[in-house]
Design goal:
single chain; Elongation Factor Tu (Ef-tu), domain 3; six-stranded antiparallel barrel; four-stranded antiparallel sheet; 4 helices; 14% helix; 31% strand; methyltransferase activity; tRNA-Thr(GGU) m(6)t(6)A37 methyltransferase TsaA; methyltransferase; S-adenosyl-L-methionine
Length: 217
Amino acid sequence: MDFEPFKIVPVGYLRNDERLHETSIEVLPEFTEAIEGLREGDWIKLLLWFHESDGPEKRRILKVHPRGNPRNPVRGVFATRSPYRPNPVALYTVQIHRIEGNMLYIDWIDARDGTPVVDIKPFVERLDCPFDEIEERELDLDKAFWIGKLRIIPRKSEHLDELEEVSPEEYDSLIIEIGPKATTLSARELKDLINFLKEVYDNLPVEIKDRLGEPEC
C-alpha cells in the first residue's frame, strides 16, 4: 500500500538541562503568538518527534519488548510507549511552571535535548479523561461563561421534553471546569448551589451589596 507523505514542521524544540534537571520548550519566533492564553500552572499535552528514533528501518519495527526488557513478552508498538513506531511521535502530559518570553518551563521529562516539538495542546480532563456523563455534543459551548478561573458550560436545552421520566438527581445540567479539572452538576445539585450562593450573597456587607446592585436572577 502506498501512502502519500504529509508535512509536519516543528513549532519549537525541547531544551533539557540535565545539570539543572530542568526542561523547557523553546517556541520558535514565528509561533510565539500561539503561546497567548497559556498560563503558569496550566497542564498541557506535549507532542514530540523522536527524531533519533526515525529512519526507514526503525519505522518498520512493529513489535518490541516493552521498556526494552527482554523478560517482557513481545507486544505491538501500539500497545507500548516504545520510541520505535511507524511515526515516532511521543506524547507527554506536563505542567507549565513558568513562562519567560518564548520559553515554557515544564516538568522534567526524559526526552533528549533538541527534540522537535510537533504541537502543544491544553490538557482538558473532560476531553482527555472521558467519563460517562454529558457528551461533548450535548454541551452548549456558545453559552459557556467564565467566572474568575471557573468555566461553566451548560447543557443544551433542546429536546428536554424527552426527559420527563428523568429525575433531577439523574439529569446532568452543566459542567464546571477549573484548569484541567472538571465536574458535573445534576439539576438537584445546581439548585442547591444556587440556594447556597444566594445565602452567601445575602450575607455580604450592605455597603458591598449597594455597590453591586441586586442579582438579575
